[in-house]
Protein: Alcohol dehydrogenase
Amino acid sequence: HSMDLTNKNIIFVAGLGGIGLDTSRELVKRSPKNLVILDRVDNPVAVAELKAMNPKVTVTYYPYDVTVPVVETVKLLKTIFAKVKTVDVLINGAGILDDHQIERTIAINFTGLVNTTTAMMEFWDKRKGGPGGVVVNICSVTGFNAIYQVPVYSASKAAVVSFTMSMAKLAHITGVTAFSVNPGITKTTLVHKFNSWLDVEPRVAELLLEHPTQTTQQCAQNFVKAIEANKNGAVWKLDLGRLDLVEWTKHWDSGI
Amino acid sequence: HSMDLTNKNIIFVAGLGGIGLDTSRELVKRSPKNLVILDRVDNPVAVAELKAMNPKVTVTYYPYDVTVPVVETVKLLKTIFAKVKTVDVLINGAGILDDHQIERTIAINFTGLVNTTTAMMEFWDKRKGGPGGVVVNICSVTGFNAIYQVPVYSASKAAVVSFTMSMAKLAHITGVTAFSVNPGITKTTLVHKFNSWLDVEPRVAELLLEHPTQTTQQCAQNFVKAIEANKNGAVWKLDLGRLDLVEWTKHWDSGI
Structure:
């Protein structure tokens, strides 16, 4: 059940981001064969650092914007598969926090994650002869209970928590397992300063940071522990330096 | 606390839809002053029927597509406010169920609801001198626990459940209260036949309808009861002919 990352091939969307970069560092320590980082903006210094950390690991970077249509993502993945042959893990980590930008928040945090995953299914779906794989979605504790001053961001995170739970239940059909990693407030540039919806609370970032938080390093260590636990359907809470399983409440059951 | 709908002005987005039309019929029985129906497609027969039902009520129809930009919605609302002067209740009911259409599902079920509500805040927000108002969002029990064969639809509904709970918590700032009405499987054309994500379950509609369901009439009656209860922050489950409050689980607290 648990996963040894040694020699594995990992695609990490937003692997240079706030939580992403420290998680990439932790992943490189585990000696995967390939760490393929897709991110909107390059950070050559960070990529060079990751390459230098562990000579056993091939670290590559491709520019990728999660808001492109599925067919574009499929093209990029074809290029990547041609080089690495197989991919074991896809980590979806792209996200923005700015409730002035409703469409963009939804496009990146929700649609982008769904589309990237949908594109990956072309290669992984066992109904198409694929080998299956593991999807790790970086969602957020705000998907459980909102930061109500950023209702659009929080709602987009509720969406991806739900989507990930559904994917896990589809694993018997697709061969693709999934779990979500839900960080609490983590000291990144994302939460340093951000806009609330209709400016309902101009001080939302400051107020949040008056409460206990965690560092990106703490979050990254628990992130990789969650990947190694490799638990289909898990909803992991990564808050205040802890790693906990969330038991989702059943309010309704489709029966099917 | 509870609301008497007599003489009230109501805007109902998708008031001619599957659940919408029967809910419009129930609303008209309560003798509001105005029932303003916004819907993508006109249904002159249904509108005529609503008009004939109760001569005390002015029923009007405007074409409206929830995927238009906020500024377009603001324009339409200006026209409506010019006629009715005040609006007491906004009901957001636009939705599609088709997991082949990822972008469109998200645009209608999630972004459309957020944008329509955001446009309404221009007129209602007490920080702008507005009188406040009540937002009623038609979400879905699949926002609590997915129909995992339609993960995109279900996720879009999880998003609007979350958004609605946030709006309710912002009522002390905006003057606008909100609650969600979450139907279970209701016998509408929406659930008669629909596409699952990547065709994971071609028989999803049939399978669902093998289990107990409710009629649109049952749903509509409980819908109007929920509006009359007028409970800010409520998460109403309308399933199997029943009306129940859902207690949302606290997995995390922002502390602010």
About this structure: Chain B has a mean pLDDT of 98. Chain B is about 40% helix and 15% strand.
